Amino acid sequence: MKVNTNPVRGMKDFLPDEAELRERVKRTIIDTYTSFGYRKIETPILEHLNLLQSGDGGDNEKLTFKVMKRGEKLKIDTAKEENDIADSGMRFDLTVPLTRIYANNQGNIPLPFKVIQADWVFRAERPQKGRYRQFMQCDIDVIGEKDIIAEIDLLIASSQALLNIGFEDFTIKINDRKVLKDLATKWGFSEEDHESVFITLDKLDKIGKDGVKKELIEKEYSHDAITAMWFDIGQFNIGEYNHIYLTDDLKKVIEGINLTSTGKFKIEFDPTLVRGMGYYTGMIYEIKYKDYPGSVGGGGRYDKMIGKRIGQDVPACGFSIGFERIVDIMLEEEQANSSIEKLAIIFDLEYHDIKRIYQEAETQRITNNYIVSVVNKEKKFGKQLKKLKDMGFTRFGELTDNHSAFTSKPLE
User: Fold this and answer.
1) Are residues 367 and 218 located together in one domain of the fold?
2) Domains in the chain: how many in total?
3) pLDDT, tens digit, for every residue of 99-115?
4) Higher-scoring residue by pLDDT: 367, 199
């Protein structure tokens, strides 16, 4: 039987060009966050199933890759449901594991705790463009800071990370869950219906104002409440009307970000911004890039989530850069090439001293900061040069006939 050599559906292999781009973007993000005082932690890929299904992960909990029990604990014959044969699962985000690691180490962690996570997460969802079953998340979080300095710090650090990657002309959208709840109450929706209404409102940029109204009608909500909401959404588009709902804290965050943007990006209040996760308790934010659909990052405040682990609320907020979307955009915009020059030193074992060759390679790495690869000379030298250029090399070099001098030239 022929072996299927494709990766598992929803997962990807990365050849050198893309793998190098991913590593460069990841390193830039981590270095930027580190310069703002955030410190890296790592958690296991597997988490206890009861933690992953505690209600904090929203719809993502339904997408958990479950892992079967092992040995004597695995009793398939008597199992009545999935959880009878599973006791752990692959993490679907990095926030749930962060709350566990804090709960487990709270006595040894001084506050505020500024943390970086950059790692794989897994979701058993339907694969499509921009959505994978295994993907990289790059998160920063601040635990133990209740003041808006946490939001300002998260957003400035994340904006600087995007700028350092090479992204400009992006817009930070910001709102507050408290504003959303006040609006839903004003429109006439009952408190128990708020989350369902917000899930529909979150689709505004995909299905439009009329689509939101249609879906709410299908959910059989009050005609008066739907009409009031539909009217207000139209008014939000006017712009100045939005400022009626601005809180003092939102104003301060917007002013703080504007002072640092130097015209390279914008921040604006968006009272229709929802964010899908139900654990958000305060400000929420997303970053939009040019006219690309969706966002290139988002996050918010989740002051109640840690309290479920330790019985006492701890203020917390975080931001996740959309790593996969950013890489896809860079590939689409042909930003994948590194600015570091790549040199191929071509040698022939019959004529060249290999020790001398590798001494020269190291000299070029140190002196010129080149990426240097030593390659064997091929018979068809012209074709070899073309192949090297296709592989991303920008220069090639050889020892002169007397083996003493080294010359390098651009690959054109």
Assistant:
1) no
2) 3
3) 999 999 998 999 999 99
4) 367
